[in-house]
Amino acid sequence: xxxxxxxxxxxxxLKGRSEAVQxxxxxxxxxxxxxxxxxxASTGVAIAAPQIGEAHRIIVCDxxxxxxxxxxxxxxxxxxxxxxxEGKKIVREGCLSVPDYTGNVSRFETVWVEGLDPQGWTVxxxxxxxxxxxxxxxxDHLDGFLFLDxxxxxxTDLFRRKAY
Length: 164
Hints:
alpha+beta, 6 strands, 35% strand, single chain, Peptide Deformylase, six-stranded antiparallel sheet
């Protein structure tokens, strides 16, 4: 597989709701491999299938290059759902699909997420901190939301990125 081009806002795929994965087939395996390769070549900690032009409900998250503890390592989730949320707070967030900006966004400190792994097994996990934020961000991508949609005020909460 290969590193894919990361779509940038305002690409229409980024604003649409992704389709649930019905069958774990070779196509899903290729999408997952492309997501892993693309994430590894990027500066990000997570990526969703729509960001590489695939409107399917698949995400990959690995915050281990940014934090050393309190994470699950590499997470691959198909059809992920956030089942529970706790501890709302405002955080500064960026996105590989909006590379020139960051913004203040309301997110939850802790989330409980459920989905399928690449073998079709149900995975349930509790994530905190950066990992929780990344999972919320990627699930938003599957629903056609960007962090820009979560900013309360574009005039006070959106910032031009100084360096990526």
